[in-house]
Amino acid sequence: MNNFLVQPFKNFLKASQFTEKLLEKCCLGSRVIDILFHFPVSVQNRSGDINNFKDKEKLTVILKIIDHAAPRYKSSIYKVFGETTNGDIITIRYFNYNSAFIRRSLPIGEIFVVSGVAQRTMEGIQITHPDVIASSNMLQYYIGPELIYPLISKLQNRTVQYAVSSLLKAMPEIPDWVTAETISKNNLMTFTQALKTIHNPRSFVDESLFASAKKRIAIDELLVNQIRLKQMRESISNCKTKPLISNGDLLEKLVLPFDLTVDQKSCLEDIKKDLSSGKPMNRLIQGDVGSGKTIVAFIAMLIALENKVQATFLVPTEILATQHFESIRKMSENLGIKIDIILSSNRRRRSEQIKKLKNGETQILIGTHALFEDNIEFGKLGLVIIDEQHRFGVMQRLSLIKKCQYPNILAMSATPIPRTLLLGFYRDLDVSTIKTKPEGRKIIKTTVIGVSKINDLIARLREINSQIYWICPVIEESETLMDINTRYEYITSHFSRNDVFILHGKMKMQEKDEIICRFKKGEFKILISTTVVEVGVNILNANVIVIEHAERFGLAQLHQLRGRVGRGNEKAYCVLLYHSPLSNIGKKRLQLMKTVTDGFLLSEEDLKLRGAGDILGKEQSGFNSLRFSDFSNNYDLIKIAEEISRKINPNNIKFLSDIFKRLNEDIIA
Length: 669
Ligand code: ADP
Ligand code: MG
Known about the structure:
Strand content: 15-25%
Shape: globular
CATH superfamily of the domain at 262-434: P-loop containing nucleotide triphosphate hydrolases
Strand order of the largest sheet: 10-11-9-12-13-8-14
Number of helices: 24
Bound molecules: adenosine-5'-diphosphate, magnesium ion
Radius of gyration: 30 Å
Distance between the termini: 27 Å
């Protein structure tokens, strides 16, 4: 197989070491493919026609420098005057300049190609801070459409252009791993064509070309993912295991404050069947928020323990890990079992913990990503529980499976995925579903109001006793999204500052935990937060959740957020606060939230309204480490990828897997 794509890009470029380092940093890798996978974001025209350029467009002209006008004060504008071949005068303007440098680069009497953003003014055409000053024979290179790439500081667009075009020139025709038949049947580009198209300005004019090229790359990425899932499934099913059969030692002693629901019971039946089969279990429990998955996982762990093997419980956040640790400790008070917790942020007792884990004293280990670390070794691990499994990648899951003596995996997910999409998502797993919630769950009263009525809302909130979540969209500087701090200022103008705290993803883990902890203890009334509280947090006295910019969230995520409240005995409320204007579909979606309480139904409805594309935005679903595709909007593509995966030559698999591997990245499934 052609290995051009995975060679170091520097072999094909003439660039300084400094530039190479910049490129490497910007494109997240040192291989040819890393550069070629760095896609342009837009195209910019450099007009060569001073009579017909569009205002603020880049204009490229040949200028003879005729004069400099250095201002008296450093704070004013430095002007350089140039004459075109037709005798027009163009002014080049600099703010914050280094005059010596300008004098040196644009000496009077010399002729240059100058290009930059141009404007027509009363004083004629002005070019401000030209980004190109080159010798006059370079004119042709600075006229016409030009691709704009994502950059980092000090790296110039031209450098990326140069790198991309040199590599494309050096690129041989790469033998395609997709057969000609599949290519023509699905109307695909070849891989080589796709790369060339993506880096061709024409594709920005004809968007269908760009889309078609991206589609090809997305299919390849999904293909790699499908292959990995298949390998994972195989590597698990090839493992030796022994039947784990409940002897009742622990289960008989377990006292629950409630009866299991029918669906919980049937899930447990599935699990028992898997565990006793003598083949590795590889099962996913899908269940809406609050449907009671944890207890099912806990009982599965007890069965493992009865068979003298250890169990581990992997969770995505420290808040959640601590919460599970506490609730499991409570449930097992009279069972005499040893439970421990490992967090990345706390290494104090680590060596002692590791010792107890190795000699089998610790029976259940709960932890976050810290569990993947090599030095976490078990005496005899027989069951891995993965909570919120879509937050973890295939490779991460595999690394835990490798620690198993008997690999049995139970994954859990509260992201309701419509039946129609299930196959693409969970190809590697058997699925059990908990549909019904425990009895007596109150319906969370959901209201939809415009932000113009925020004062009424605040007045209501001041009257009630409950604690309140106030969710804001993720902080993003670039957008007009309301800043969490602005909302903080507004709310604290109505409540005491001691009663309002902020939580967001950029805070340190410890800070976050501390705030959640204090909120849990009831020390303050309002928690303003981004969606970091989304997963599994259980705070009984918080019965109101306000979701600001509700129109920007996916229904699945709104539903997840709504599930944060109504966990105690009080009536619970969800206020969807939207900012106008709201599209028709937007209105319908929020109305759906009012009437539909079943997460699965909601996601089916959302699918009908918006198409698969938006159901689980990358960020929202956690499927964010696929770079060119996400499962939801590419369901059709998954089918094509699946078809290709069945026909692919196994020799190509490693190569493919390599080219889609990025620094520190894992593919999520
Ligand atoms: P999730 O499925 O979202 O992870 P949890 O496992 O955290 O949900 O359960 C939510 C709450 O429901 C917990 O407080 C749990 O104790 C309670 N619960 C679980 N099963 C039942 C049941 N069968 N009857 C009543 N309450 C239950
Ligand atoms: Mg949970």
